[in-house]
From TrEMBL:
Matching SUPFAM superfamilies: Aldolase
InterPro entries according to UniProt: Aldolase_TIM (IPR013785), DeoC (IPR011343), DeoC/FbaB/LacD_aldolase (IPR002915), DeoC_typeI (IPR028581)
Gene Ontology BP annotations: 2-deoxyribose 1-phosphate catabolic process; carbohydrate catabolic process; deoxyribonucleotide catabolic process
Record's protein name: Deoxyribose-phosphate aldolase
Enzyme class, first EC level, given as a word: lyase
Pathway the protein contributes to: Carbohydrate degradation; 2-deoxy-D-ribose 1-phosphate degradation; D-glyceraldehyde 3-phosphate and acetaldehyde from 2-deoxy-alpha-D-ribose 1-phosphate: step 2/2
Biological source species: Pseudomonas abietaniphila
């Protein structure tokens, strides 16, 4: 696949989810997103009001993570967080599913958890984070099937806060299961142009990364991070 580096900007959720992220860093994130034409900035829900106040022209969306990074909270709490984030200016929501419930085979609970957040989102797109590094292929498949049935906007590989991030194999599996109508977001470890292209070729339609500028500059991988 031939995509010029700069053309990847609209695939990218420019991300800063560190617990110690400051307003100065959020302001830089938003400025970079505007300058380079990234699709969104992805921040913790408590940072949404400030990010939204800086991105008033609507060119760059604010994406908020919910139930992050563990996904183990009460469904009502996740739904409330999503609703509050949207009221504060979030245009997309990335929620972490209940990983423990999925591993226990409590599929109705997993589905109800996602459905509660989706209802709270209304028309706002919902991405569901699987945390693929904690799941086997059968569990990943089942999670994707539930998400497909609930008609979520995206399934997403990873929080970037667990054992590892996106892999090409997981992206390909998720794309195969959800089909053409649900997006796939690769996140965690996508730090250079070559990896970004490989993820897109495997089926990703969005990339979550803190290395967006390096990616659209065509840079090689360096360092570590989201």
């Amino acid at each position: 696949m031939k995509i010029e580096p700069a053309a990847l900007a609209q695939y990218i959720d420019h991300t800063l989810l560190a617990a110690d992220a400051t307003r100065e860093q959020i302001a830089t994130l938003c400025r970079e997103a505007q300058e380079h034409g990234f699709y969104s900035v992805c921040v913790n829900s408590g940072q949404v009001p400030y990010a939204a106040s800086l991105l008033t022209d609507g060119q760059v969306k604010v994406c908020a993570v919910v139930g992050f990074p563990l996904g183990a909270g009460l469904s009502d709490t996740k739904a409330f967080e999503a609703k509050q984030a949207i009221a504060a200016g979030a245009g997309e929501i990335d929620m972490v599913l209940n990983v423990g419930a999925l591993k226990d085979g409590l599929l109705d609970q997993v589905g109800d958890d996602i459905a509660a957040v989706k209802q709270a989102c209304g028309e706002v797109p919902l991405k569901v984070i699987l945390e693929t590094c904690l799941l086997d292929d059968a569990q990943k498949t089942k999670a994707c099937e539930i998400c497909r049935e609930l008609n979520v906007a995206f399934v997403k590989t990873s929080t970037g806060f667990s054992r590892s991030g996106a892999t090409l194999e997981d992206v390909a599996l998720m794309r195969k299961v959800v089909g053409a109508d649900v997006g796939v977001k690769a996140s965690g470890g996508v730090r250079d142009y070559k990896t970004a292209i490989a993820m897109i070729e495997a089926g990703a339609t969005r990339l979550g990364t803190s290395s967006g500028i390096a990616i659209i500059s065509g840079a090689e991988a360096s360092g570590s991070g989201y």
